[in-house]
């Protein structure tokens, strides 16, 4: 018995004659692992994909009749089905969804649904088509009897149907219940189709003009965002300059005694863009004062060169003796100079943009599309200022935005 058990456990199928070894290796085997068809990292491999050839009985299938509940003629059909499912309903019957079209009586029609533009026979014909074609109004309009009745559009048929549905829902609803009454706006549907027809009948020139206008609108929006961002940066610089001056005045007036920490926290915080933010050496160990004078890496080379040039113009040594007071004063001076440099750059950009707008306004005024400029004040460069009332009044319809991105003052100097 032990030998027979061992022999039954090690029983394997022999490869049939004429079958290649590679094909036989693809078959399922309980004692062997699945051969990898492609390199894979998963542990299961292709075991679930292989056909399981075993000695179990196959589930019986039977050729049996069935009826489709969607058909009303009682037609009998045949198909193959599992024997265990005999007598069950047709599985695809659950997809047979029908629309519940309301039914009205003669008395209800005469009391609530009567309309001078519609006869009862025409209304009955409309609801009969709605039941037959499941509210597919395009098909209903195609099958509508236009010879016997008045010629109607799809919107007219929809409007009549949903008007009757809303009336019947209001009549038959119990008092105090919330109704979801279907509403159809025929006028809006007609206007929508007219606009769609106009859009479809556009010429290639009109399509190209619309695309051009969309591109120009995107350019205007991007330039507007850039101007808003520059305005915010300029406001931050002005706020930083005001806060730094106020803090230094308060420090000079205050006594040399150490203030409590609560009052220090109440001081307004300086924005990050104000001047230079020098690193604090709070780590343990020995540090040199000259390290505190070193500019941080966030300052660009352009600002460093401009800072050195301003220090040379003021006659300040670039590498002073690093005492405690000199280090603090030197860092404050460089921070103020960098803030002044940034304010000058922002002021130059604003002046250049204002000059570009002034030239464009003058060009449009010469062309005759806008009235002449009104001189309200003279600028430092000797040019006349813009009349704000005229810009807001007559010129706002003509001037949309400056076409083309304005150049910076530095780029103009390089070209000259």
Highlighted features:
15 helices, 416 residues, Arc Repressor Mutant, subunit A, 2 strands, mainly alpha, two-stranded antiparallel ribbon, single chain, disordered C terminus, flat
What does this structure look like?
This protein starts with a helix and ends with a helix. It has 15 helices and 2 strands. Strands 1-2 form a two-stranded antiparallel sheet. By secondary structure, the chain is mostly helical. It has helices spanning 2-9, 21-25, 106-113, 120-132, 137-143, 154-172, 186-200, 204-253, 261-266, 289-292, 301-314, 324-367, 388-392, 395-398, 409-415; strands at 61-67, 76-82. Residues 262-274, 375-408 and 411-416 have low confidence and may be disordered. Among the domains are: 61-95, no CATH class; 106-201, Orthogonal Bundle (Arc Repressor Mutant, subunit A); 298-363. Keywords: Chromatin regulator, Methyltransferase, Nucleus, Transcription, Transcription regulation, Transferase.
How are the strands of the largest sheet arranged? 1-2
Calculate the terminal CA-CA distance, rounded to whole Å. Answer: 108 Å
Low-pLDDT regions: 262-274, 375-408, 411-416
CATH class of the domain at 106-201: Mainly Alpha
CATH topology of the domain at 106-201: Arc Repressor Mutant, subunit A
Strand-helix topology:
Elements: H1 2-9, H2 21-25, E1 61-67, E2 76-82, H3 106-113, H4 120-132, H5 137-143, H6 154-172, H7 186-200, H8 204-253, H9 261-266, H10 289-292, H11 301-314, H12 324-367, H13 388-392, H14 395-398, H15 409-415
Antiparallel strand pairs: 1-2
Helix pairs in contact: 6-7, 8-12, 11-12
